[in-house]
Structure formats: structure tokens, C-alpha cells
Amino acid sequence: MSKIRKADSVEIFSLVDNSVDFLSTTSHKQVQSFGQWTRERHGQEWMSTHTQFPYAEHGFSMLIRVFNEEKSESILFDTGGSPEAIGENAKRMGISLSEIGCIVMSHGHYDHFGGLLSVVKAVDKAGLPIIVHEDMFKIRGTAYSDGTIRKYTEFPTEAQLSPAHIISTEQPFLMADNMVCITGEIPRETSFEKGLMRHKSFMNGSWQPDPHIRDDRAIIINAKEKGLVVLSGCAHAGIINTVAYCPADHGNSERLCLNRRLSPSWKRV
User: Fold this and answer.
1) Among 206, 244, 259, 262, which is most exposed with the fewest C-beta within 10 angstroms?
2) What is the Cβ-side half-sphere exposure of residue 262, based on CA atoms within 13 angstroms?
3) 140-143/71-77 β-pairing
4) For 125, how many CA atoms within 13 A lie in the half-sphere containing its CB?
């Protein structure tokens, strides 16, 4: 894996997730609740006219900002499960999707790409990079106990995503001035992370077992004085496999892993 350039600092915003929590508190200074962050970032006057909280849905999306000296880059990691949630939640948080310079898809399931078309429209940049894996375009579904298949919504086509630019790769890929890396295919090494056993793909005219979901990947950020920050969507590859795959040659063996099921909040590393 190529060397990942150190980021002076990182901001991570949970835009879409399965649940929200506006009551819990934390003593960790790196973490801020929605209310605390909006009050400090936008001020009390802004909050008095923006009273709606972000809402949850079956889906996942994170906005990542990385900083180096005076420069910053913004990357969107997945787009939620519906066309509406990501745009509405960003609005309620006072975040403009137009700042996005690249979209990274963790894998090709509907609860991660549901808002992709609406985000491409909102960002409105010709050639906007969307990093994918070729398996994301497979026809997929889940097998019920009686053998019937629930077919998933299909991933958008390249024509539908125009004028964005699709970059399909199975290998690690650097972006954001080399401060962010999307892993390549993650080796399955552990004996206990067996994948999604009911998962199927339609291949050669029939539904075939496809438990490994080879397109499942993670984002790695090399945070200055912190080590590697690993961001995963569903971690179908296995979270232990995912973390173990991250390179250990960046001068710090520590890894901070953030998996999905986080409430809409802000984190600075």
C-alpha cells in the first residue's frame, strides 16, 4: 500500500446513520454532539432559526475533512439509504454538500448508495470522482429461509451518474492530496469472520452464493500524532481483517477504528 501523507487534523461528520441520540453526553474532548457543535460553529442566532434535528434512516454516510497546513479537502464516504436524508441532514447541520471533492463508496449495497444520485446533482461538479469497485454493479439480494430472494436496488449506472467520473479499482487508491486512502480488496484471514451467509448475486442466469462481498473496503487516514484512523461502513470483510490489513509502516502502530452505527455528531482527531 502506498505511503499515506500525514494530516494535521481530521474532522468527521456523521450525516446518515441507523439511529440518532441527542441526549447522551461525553467527556471526550474530540467528540461533540449535534447541539454542541452547531452552537459553537454557527452561533446561537443560527440555531434559533434552524431548529430541526438530523434524522435517522437505514443507511450510512460520513463527511470527512482532512487538513494539512492551510489546505483542506472534503471527501464523502457513502451516501445513505435514500435520496432525501443526506441532503436534508446536511442542511440541518449547516453543511454544504458543494464542498465535496470526491465520493468514496464502501460497497455496493442500497443503504450506502441510496443518496448517490441526489448528491451528484447537489455537488454539481463535472468530473467529480466517485471511487467504486466493479462488484458494486452486480445484481444482488438476500435469501430468505424458504429459499426466496429479496432483490436489492441496483447500483446506479455510469450514464446515470454523469457528469461525475467513475474510478473503478480493486487496489488501494490515494486521494485528497494523498492524505486519505481507500483500501483495496481486504484479505479474509480470520476464521470467524465468515461474511454475510444469506447474501446472493445474480450471475450466469441464476442466484449464486456471494457471502464475501469483495467490494467491501475501508478508508484510512494517517492523523498526525495519533496514528491511523480507519473508517468502515458495514465491515462485511470483518472488522479484524480490515484493521489488520492497514499498513503498520507509518511511524505509529496505533489505530483508531470507527465503524458504522454512530449517531449524527462531529469528531476531531
Assistant:
1) 206
2) 24
3) unpaired
4) 15
Determine the 3-state secondary structure of 109 from DSSP.
coil
CB 76 within 8 A of CB 61: yes
In words, the CATH class of domain 6-268 is: alpha beta
Count CA within 13 A, CB hemisphere, residue 214: 12
Strand 199-203 relative to strand 206-209, pairing = antiparallel
Of residues 104 and 38, the one with the higher pLDDT is 104
Residue 19 above 50 pLDDT? yes
Supply angle C-alpha 180, 184, 188, rounded to 5: 130
Domain ranges of the chain: 6-268
pLDDT, tens only, 34-52: 888 888 889 988 888 888 9
N-terminal to C-terminal alpha carbon distance within the chain? 23
Report CA-CA distances (Å) from 83 to 80, 116, 136, 153, 204.
Answer: 8, 7, 18, 13, 31
| Among 129, 138, 137, CA closest to 167 | 129
The per-residue pLDDT for 261 is 43
